Amino acid sequence: MTEPQTNTLRGEGISLSFGGIKVLKDLDVEFRAGEITGLIGPNGAGKTSLFNCLTGAYTPQKGNIGYAGNSLNGLPPSMRAAKGIVRSFQHVALCPDLTVRENVMIGVARNHHSGWLNAFLPLPRGQREWAAMAQDANRALADLGLAEMGDLMPDALPPGMQRLVEIARAIVGNPSVLLLDEPAAGLNNSETSDLMAVLRELASNDLVLVVVEHDMDLVMSICDRIYVLNFGELVADGTPKEVRENPNVVRIYLGSDDD
Amino acid sequence: MSDTFGQRPANASETSMLKQLTSGSLPTLALIIALAFLPAMLGGSWTFTMGLCFANSIGVLAVSLLVRYGGEVSIGHTFFTALGAYSVGVLDAKYGLSLFASLPLALLLGVAFGVIFAWPSRNLSGIYLAVTTLALALAVPEIINNLGGITGGYEGLYVSTPIVSFLEMSMQRYYFALLMLVVATYLVARLRKSRQGMLLLLAKTHSAAADAFGTRRVWARISIMGISGGIGALCGATLAFSGSTVSPGGFTFSQAIFLLVGSVVGFYGLSLPRVLLGGAFVTLVPHLLSASGAWIPVFYGIALLSMILIGHHLPRIRKAMKLRKEAG
Questions:
Q1: In this predicted model, what pLDDT tens digit does every residue of B28-55 receive, in sequence order?
Q2: Nearest CA-CA distance, residue B205 and chain A, Å
Q3: What number is the ipTM of this complex?
Q4: Crossing angle, helix B296-327 and helix B272-288, to 10 degrees?
Q5: Do A86 and B196 touch (CB under 8 A)?
Q6: What domains appear along chain A, each with residue ranges and CATH number?
Q7: Interface with chain B: mutation pick from A52, A117, A138, highest number of B CBs within 10 Å
């Protein structure tokens, strides 16, 4: 790895393949704290696969992944989560057996450590823990305009709101790295605007925020830097203006004259 | 950010939880009170049978818990019930120790063997795990018979040491089983409102999401098998005390299947009424059919099918009745 920047999530030379299919090809990426980084590309470009490598769900055949100067290679997803690296999913992954509030409480559970006795008996520590998690969840839900939805079950919400609940679950635990996979999918214009406001506020100095998104208006308006992938390769990177004017990107999204 | 940031009452979830508990617990409380007075209305043999029914309900709870929190089916829980039962039987018959000593041992062994079983089978699921538990069930009677010096072999052991001196033994057998059932369902209800319970449920439905939020699937599997094994052992300990005898015939493969049947009849419910329904089906239906001779399996099958069909169609029937009432 080259000289690390503080609180930067880096991937160097990441290659991933399934059987003979190369999903990611020697990718170098750097996601900085305090910035919103967009990850765009057509379907099958490898965006979610890159997320899976960063969070430890997939183990790349080649390359290094590090955060804040420390290697993450070989760490399972649960240990990366313990370091504050969290994500949302392309397909909403809420638990149907839990209420909306409880689903969000999951996001902060890793910060609590009461033992099994507290799970079975009404002991003060367990009750304090539950109340604190509920309070944090309520705050995150309120941030996303879902304050009144806490007692509902997830399947009572439309898909767009379910996605917001998932984002609330991701942000509630004050993550150091937040990877959002298509956070605006299924949201209406108003919900998307609220989401953009929340993301802008989240992009504090301490947070590495990466967004995979097909909504180009959202990406171009909130991202400080954008990576463009196509067939597992890095096609372009830079500011939204640079990316928008990049001929390779234009070709990928609009097609060339030869196509 | 929303203007409502932080304005929601901190204890909102506690209030809603209280509501949920209150709404669900009043009928349950009435049921417990009714069961507490039941011996005054029943004869001796029915009091004895109800004690066994409560014990089997705990076994149904153990199996249902594994389904609801682990997403897995066990057809070998008699392994854990045997552990609990023989903990009580051996300490009672060989050393004259009461449940005060044997019950903690039973729980400890149930949890420990649940964990020991879960570790090598941690990557198995569905039918593969079910078949693995089948191996446990098939092994149990043979293990018991081969350890005849300790377990009493085919003849089994007689459990006779009372817990308290002021209550008739038959009443102790009944009320101990009722108490254990109430305690077990209460503890499981508490689990639902705990951090660990939430994480187990997420790991069951979305293991990748659980992983991404710091919960390892292996931890979830081992934890739920340990808890379920412990409750299974509690079932066995209760069966031993309330049934007064412990013998290999009580821990056959058929018994393991009956526990699963009870769990299905209770629709994998974890509340006292639901597990009691399952336990009653396992215990009382064969008792009621005992005069039917060779037709017992046929009638039992019909009863089982009827219960499942009623349970399956009940929501639709209720909905239709509600609509008819509104239209009328």
A1: 999 999 999 999 888 788 999 999 999 9
A2: 6
A3: 0.87
A4: 140
A5: no
A6: 1-84+175-259 (3.40.50.300), 96-162 (no CATH)
A7: A138
